[in-house]
Amino acid sequence: MALSCLALAGCAGTPAATPTVAETVTAAPAPAPAVASAAAIPTIAAAPATAVIPANVTGLNAEALDDDLKALGFQKVVFNSDTGKTVLLLSNWTVTGIDNPGLEQATSKAVVVHVTK
């Protein structure tokens, strides 16, 4: 606290003036926000960059194979009808083959699955 007083020069017969006191109050700085340590931050496992295309898929249900391929990390699965029909409901189709069976491929590349009803 700063304390300041005024010095007064007294005159004869004049009563002394009351000194003025000035007080300065400052607030303490706010504490810095807590920063989480690197060990406390959860990490998300990255999808593998490549995976092996399954080889023994003939006769599987197309929906089940789609689930398996997505679990392996493949992002694009294309279903190609052997009869030229549009493949809409995967559970109604049976797999007749797959392109590049048993080969390792980037998960970002499309996997082509051949199906029939």
Structure overview:
The chain has 117 residues and is mainly beta. It has a domain at 51-116: Trypsin Inhibitor V, Chain A (2-Layer Sandwich). Helices cover 9% and strands 21% of the residues. The strands form two sheets. Strands 2-5-3 form a three-stranded mixed beta sheet, with helices on one face. The radius of gyration is 40 Å and the shape is rod-shaped. The N and C termini lie far apart (90 Å).
In short:
This protein has 117 residues and is mainly beta.
CATH fold title of the domain at 51-116: Trypsin Inhibitor V, Chain A
- Largest sheet strand order: 2-5-3
Round the Cα radius of gyration to an integer and report it: 40 Å
Counting DSSP E segments of at least 2 residues, the number of strands comes to 5
CATH-level-2 architecture of the domain at 51-116: 2-Layer Sandwich
The residue-averaged pLDDT reads 81
Main CATH class of the domain at 51-116: Alpha Beta
- How is the biggest beta sheet arranged? 3 strands, mixed
* Low-pLDDT segments: 1-11
Residues in helices, as a percent range = under 10%
Broad shape:
rod-shaped
- Succession of helices and strands: EHEEEE
Strand content: 15-25%
* Structural class based on helices, strands and sheet pairing: mainly beta
Alpha plus pi helix count: 1
Span from first to last CA? 90 Å
